[in-house]
User: Fold this.
Amino acid sequence: MVEKFDAIVIGAGPSGNAATYTLAKQGLKVLQLERGEYPGAKNVQGGIMYAHELEKIIPDFRDDCPTERHIIEQRIWLLGDDNYIGTNYRSESYNSDTPNRYTIIRANIDKWWGERIRKVGGLQICETTVTELIRDASGKVIGVRTDREGGEIHADVVIMADGVNALLAKRSGFQGEAAPENVALAVKEILFIDPELIQQRFGIKEDEGVVIEIMGKVTKGMVGTAFLYTNKESLTIGIGCLISDFKEGDCTPYKMLEDLKNHPVIKPLIEGAEMKEYAAHMIPEGGFKAIPQLYGDGWMVVGDAAHFNNAAHREGSNLAMASGRMAAETVIALKEAGKPFVAGNLAAYKKALDDSFIIKDLKKYRELPGIMHANKQFFGAYPDEITQAAHNWFTVDSVDKRTKEVSIMKSFVKRRSVFGLVGDAIKLVRAMR
Ligand code: FAD
Assistant:
């Protein structure tokens, strides 16, 4: 006899964990399946974890959640060849009892989620890959098949939280292949380093953290960003660019990361650190226009598998947790009302998403991916011009300031033309509004 659950959740990343925890806490019979040897074994994140969404799901998460440092300072840097221009935001208010963001190491966090899920009665099984969705004669999803012997399991509803590849939705015809310009490939390293050095180099106390988001010449004109985050006893450094750009160019992600680590501005920050872990992963960056069908008879899709990622703000895990929670709340409401899990009823999930920051934010930046992909000057010419202009402006060399202004302007116009500059400004406004 095939075992039946109220819900099956595929994947133990932040979206699947949020869904499973929410369902189990409400007393539903839920099974979570994860292909990794343990939760987090297959997962890659920079990573910053945003507390607000997690707090909604597990209000007391700070009691035992293995976070690294709470972030008190955010830096945004535009790198030139040997320089950078940037901005910092630092606030003592982030030193409160309820900090807003933390650096994390995913393997630790995902294991912790597993413990919390078990405590509220959820069943999480690892080393089990879901190979396909099972559908009845009408096409409704009624369960999953796994790579285990006799691995057929049934449920009222299946929540796909299987990450950016979304293989199950694709295999079932619910999603098409993602275009290479809609997906970034990111590589990162965790570098082990003495905590004292982290504190000295970044101007922080024990437990305080700094994160640096990086753009500019390190992506070699490709659409992409880099990052450097402070953990307790390590630094996380990474870089990612669109797959379509990697295909066209001849630079490998690994070479790009090596160049980032050797950049004169970055090198002194990581000097003496030893590589602990290397990982590569994809990030869905197509934004609003790349969102697939989100629900159907007996199924919903959440997190990266639903292409929920706000590349402009480098937010992914919070969208994942929020969408997982909303999918679970939809299931709970239907269960309580005794309604069937058909598309018409699961549409409530889409309504919740539409009313939330997820769809509102992705809609706001709907033109951004297309504009960035088609206008590489934002990742090549402008970082070059801006960092050179800063160098010119801040170098005291007895050239009068008016002459400096004129030479900076001339350099921009020579590179982009007046029409080009005006056009680029309009494009930027369109991309951000
Ligand atoms: P995932 O975390 O990818 O989890 C999917 C899970 O499903 C995995 O555990 C996988 O093993 C499992 N799975 C897949 N297929 C199957 C199957 N068939 N059967 C069983 N299990 C399966 N976000 C942030 O908020 N802050 C950051 O700083 C940040 N930095 C990032 C840095 C990098 C380099 C990358 C790659 C991403 C970063 N993100 C960041 C994005 C964030 O990691 C994702 O948005 C988030 O992990 C999505 O969660 P998810 O649960 O949807 O998917």
